[in-house]
Amino acid sequence: MTKLNDTIHRVTQRVIDNSRGSRSAYLELMDREGDRQVNRGTLSCSNLAHAYAGAEEDQKAIMLARGPNLGIVTAYNDMLSAHQPYYRYPERMKIWAREVGATVQVAGGTPAMCDGVTQGEDGMELSLFSRDTIALSTVVALSHAMYDGVALLGICDKIVPGLLMGALRFGHLPAIFVPSGPMGTGISNKEKQRTRQLYAEGKVGREELLASEMGSYHSPGTCTFYGTANSNQMMMEMMGLHVPGAAFVPPGAKLRQELSRAATHRLAALKKDGDDFRPLARVVDEKAIINAAIGLLATGGSTNHAIHIPAMARAAGIQFDWNDLAELSSAVPLVARVYPNGSGDVNRFHDAGGMAYVIGTLLDEGLAHDDILTIWDGGFEAYAREPGMDGDDLAWRDPGPSGDPEMLRPASDPFQADGGMRLVEGNLGRACFKSSAVKREHWSIEAPCRVFETQHAVNEAFKKGELDRDVVVVVRFQGPRANGMPELHKLTPALGVLQDRGYHVALVTDGRMSGASGKVPAAIHCTPEALGGGPLSRLRDGDIVTVSAETGTLSTTADLDSREPAPQPHTQSGMGRELFAMFRANADGAEQGASSMLAMAGL
Prior knowledge:
By secondary structure, this protein is an alpha/beta fold. The protein has helices spanning about 5-20, 20-35, 45-50, 55-65, 90-100, 115-120, 125-140, 160-165, 190-200, 205-215, 230-240, 255-270, 280-285, 285-300, 305-315, 320-330, 345-350, 355-365, 455-465, 480-485, 490-500, 580-585, 595-600; strands at about 70-75, 105-110, 150-155, 175, 385-390, 395, 420-425, 430-435, 445-450, 470-475, 505-510, 520-525, 545-550, 555.
């Protein structure tokens, strides 16, 4: 067994120490819930009759015989391509459950936003808080005390974190995530990016842009770039919450069906009165959270998880912050380059060895915890093997060497020595900088800033030629309390064009960029946010701003203390945003997870 890296050991121990009180309180609550909470065996006859009324007769018979009853919480809708395949999952899972003397009921559904559809639109201001809504929906679904295990059907951006945060409040039950896989590869990512930049410059029209986008996003399944959705799937593997290797097998494949069948059988086997009980509260511990962060860093995953990992951790009584993430980043090498950090998409990544290769090489070098409690028999080492079919049966095998050294490298010979998720801080606050997506010559910039309060205003200034110079673009009042912290993905093409023209350009914002953050240096999730007098509210056009991943700097030479903060420029109404006023008013900072639900619960 390889000795664990000293830095990872140190950070893990610090997280354990910092979490001692909150983690103990959480586990005590879960133990009490497991002992106290009513279940099917203690529900009244009237309650049970209501719960069984809609069941088919053979399923009802198994329920009455007290076989395990598994609850599905599903984020199915057929607008969101990644979730469209879930339409048939419940009926199949009911059949598979009966094979092992169990039953399945759909406990409830959750919302499932597509950030790709809402990018740049008012609906994006609901996106981050949809995570809390999903968590609350999960809690409501599981409140019926009918279930011996939970199957979580979700993939995309806020959906997996929300499902996990909600399910952790029922952590006395076992739980498994069941993914559906990525769509097939469309046009090349390089061609898609080129068309977007040409459109931003006015050199191609909407017809050409639409044809390009539909060539990229063209069928059921997860979008194939390595954004938040696919980073979610990576993390579920790193935490041991999938059947090993389930993350990136495409929809419709025989292997995908058999992995989902195996998940159903396995969940039934994890029941409390069985001989292999593994409650979610014990699976998601400090080491599992550290493994999730390690996977994020090693693969160059989504910046959104600098917000989601602390929030998921808090739901399990674990304290994890950006200091922990940055210190881990100093020790974890970048072993994968997947678009937008490389040329190939997640299908090519999977074909080259995928998560089995990543986990294997991390374990070989002592760069991940090998002793986490997973949902699968065989421990975390089982996740270093890739699934396949041996006739009609599932089988796992060693993935062998990297099938594409331009995409996957061993941890002993990585693309770069650190994980590329850096903390920058100074008199403008604290922010995240994803250096793994940015060429090293662009890691530092010092230039006059131009201050904006919407991404639309940035793009208008770009079209007028007002940004054709060295510039730090500041987009403020985009934090969780201001407007729900939307992604600002519409900025990427324009800023990319400016960089390609030879200008030194950077972005500073208290908002989010996409999980597909690209080649332009960006200090994002800046905290404290502008609303309430944060430093960004005191910046003025022309102030000199320094952003540097090299030195970890986010600062200005301006005398901010001598200035009054700018007023919030907009209010949130329309598109239902007014109904989310409670979420905005009570949200905590980005580094804590930007959650109103957790803040109000005192977690």
